[in-house]
Please model this.
Amino acid sequence: MKKKGQDTMASEANQQTQSLAKPAFTEAQASALVESIFGLKVSKIQPLPSYDDQNFHVHISRTKDTADGPAEYVLKISNTETSKNPDLIEAQNLVIMFLKAAGFPTASVCRTKGDNTTSLVCIDNSLETRSHLVRLLTFLPGRPVAQTPVSPQLLYEIGRLAAKLDKTLETFHHPKLLSLHRDDFIWNLKNIPLLEKYLDALGQNQNREIAEQVIQLFKKEVVTKLSEFRECINHGDLNDYNILVQPSESASGDTVLQVSGVLDFGDMSHGCYVFEVAITIMYMMIESKNPLQVGGHVLAGFESVDPLTAIERGALFPLVCGRFCQSLVMAAYSCQLYPENREYLMITAKTGWKHLQQMLDLGQKAVEEIWFETARSYEAGSAM
Model:
């Protein structure tokens, strides 16, 4: 029986490899796309790290037509599977534009020469034709949170940002947002049980045992309560590389870090408010020297905008553990598909398994006590 499961896993992996082809454009090809599709003259282009798409940092040469516009952009080339769903990409673009208009530090979406926000590019090789959706966004200033020392105040502000983003999207309505109902999307936090299909990527070891423990905890503590969580659109990936910060002067004259950019809306889906705060807590834990303290600061910021219900709060621990599990299991699986991208894919794994084990060893009650006590101290005005 076990052998059959392994064969099925291998078959699914082969199918995904065939259907989800990561783009492999050279810098010269990417540069040509910018010029032919968007009419901009490239002066410099560099690849940016990405999961299963391809991104480039683009500098353009100034002309009289572009003298007043931005000088830096990000070219985003979607993988073949995502490119089959143009409504999903269009929904992401619409959300980015809506949030920018609402005052969030998101990019501007650039229009093609044909006045569209995306363009489908077909690449022929000797075996097949691959299609990739291409778009261009303005480059945002700042450094990733992962590369900066993170204070409790910044964690609080990131929590506020996560809640404000989801609350703001409550007011956005468009037919193409229906594409965000992605029932089997592996990165939607409700879909932790789907990870069972990918566990063979971990091998037979302690990490697999941890993942199995988290999945069972999730089935018991979250799946039975999903219908009681308040629903919304989630960004779904507010990680320490998707939030940019830069120094700013506070009202008191001190220099503080402020969020200067929110990136990568590719994991957006219809989810729940508590999913967003759990995902944000997990990613802010990754780079922290005191990971267990992080949750309370993020939670306090989130709840200053959108207080969680008692049931949502009670699910926070298994949801954070679940996101660790998603990230760690899918990184191991993706490394089998894209071994050349291993360094980027395994960023979370450097500390993730250790943090997850620590949470499970301490147990839900003890971790919640740390988080909720920290969050309570903001109400008393003593946490800053």
